[in-house]
Amino acid sequence: MNTRRNFLAAAGLLAAGAASRNALATAPEPHHHDSADTAPPLHPGSGRPYNPVVTLNGWSLPFRMKNGVKEFHLVAEPVEREIAPGMIARLWGYNGSSPGPTIEAVEGDRVRLFVTNKLPEHTTVHWHGLILPNGMDGVGGLTQPQIKPGQTFVYEFVLHNSGTFMYHPHADEMVQMAMGAMGLFIVHPRNPRQMAVHRDYAFLINAYDIDPGSSVPKVNTMLDFNLWTWNSRAFPGIAPLVARTGERVRIRMGNLTMTNHPIHLHGHVFEVAGTDGGWVPRTARWPEVTVDIAVGQMRAIEFIADNPGDWAFHCHKSHHTMNAMGHSVPTMIGVQQDDLTPALQKLLPDYMAMGSSGMAEMAEMDMPLPDNTLPMMTGRGPYGSVEMGGMFSVLKVRDKLPAASTEQLAWAGLDAFGWYAMPSGTQAHTVPTDTAPAAPRDPHAPKPAAEAGARVLQVQKPTHLHGH
Ligand SMILES: [Cu+2]
């Protein structure tokens, strides 16, 4: 025993343990931030230099250096989050926000992370993707006792690998993640010139099931979520991404929902430059315009913003670009509702016939909504409704950015930055229909029912029935 003690003391391990217990009494004052605006990037005032990220609709947690150790203080607690203007959700997060603040540090840093639990039940924090000692992995019951309400735990380890990682509870996980407890953990390369880009954006992909008119997520939902969000924001509440023509842009995305998300960028070709496992060697990358991000995965994409414009950037699962009201609407295409509507309006004064010719009209109309919910597809563009919700934003590439605001544009609202002025002759436009060349028809195809003299079912749309 004595020999072992001497050995540990010689290795400096006892001293480190004592320092940790000592530090516990002096956790740094927790920073608090409850705005859903994108905060300016947090340039490090001490410690190793790095190029900070911009967290969409989020912020980075300030740290303090103490005897060469980078100290952070996370407080797990109930928060209120504006999902988009018109809807507030009551979630669980850290330091006033959901997701919690982004933690940024540098490869080689020793970090000390204080976690105070102000939730009504026990929790832990797991540092997803980081290579660390087993006892710092944050799996309640397996690698540590649960952090009970009111308790503070401290985690301490050295960051061996740079890349994009996440943090989230590994305690009552389904409930705590469904409530929004999660955050990003960015480890920058030791050499700031390595992997440097002009714009470095980051966000978490998350989802909620909140009944229209209510504000607390249903925590037992397995797959049928109705709010598809980036950093707990839905379009049109998601900040745009901004770049000057020719800049190299990185977008880091971590998926903590219960399904995969094929994230699609218009107008540009990108490569996957990083996963939660680290950086992808240049020789192993291939060109893409969509990257499918599986559950629990992170992907960092990189591209040159070489195509000026307002480019859609969204999940390609089309029900993920739609807000809550749309998910339980029956398909009404082709259904005649005209004679039904007056009868229904006697029972339900607000009833509106809709969907007979598609659902686009729903983006335009003024249907009364329950309090605290979002229209299913919305967002105004220069040419009308964008008819989107959920996981949708806009990459704004411009030859010139307003002076002195190059870094700050990232957190301007979608409208604040203005719309792309298209050079004349470069935009789709209307022409008289009879000037279009006749559409070629397959001579072997069966004739349309009307021409063949068959009985035609009277529907509004589609205009003919497919023959199978
Ligand atoms: Cu999706």
UniProtKB/TrEMBL annotation:
Keyword annotations: Capsid protein, Cell cycle, Cell division, Metal-binding, Oxidoreductase, Signal, Virion
Biased composition (Low complexity): 428-439
Chief site of localization: periplasm
InterPro entries: Cu-oxidase-like_N, Cu-oxidase_C, Cu-oxidase_fam, Cu_oxidase_Cu_BS, Cupredoxin, TAT_signal
Keyword Manganese found: no
Molecular function (Gene Ontology), one example: copper ion binding
Record's keyword annotation contains Glycosyltransferase: no
UniProt-listed GO biological process terms: cell division
Stretch list, region Disordered: 26-49, 428-452
Domain Plastocyanin-like span(s) in chain numbering: 84-191, 214-330
Protein location: Periplasm
A GO CC term attached to the entry: periplasmic space
Signal peptide per UniProt: 1-25
Coiled coil (residue ranges): none
Gene3D superfamilies according to UniProt: Cupredoxins - blue copper proteins
The organism's place on the tree of life at top rank: Bacteria
Entry-linked Pfam families: Cu-oxidase_2, Cu-oxidase_3
This protein's name: Multicopper oxidase with three cupredoxin domains (Includes cell division protein FtsP and spore coat protein CotA)
Organism field: Thiomonas bhubaneswarensis
Lineage of producing organism: Bacteria, Pseudomonadati, Pseudomonadota, Betaproteobacteria, Burkholderiales
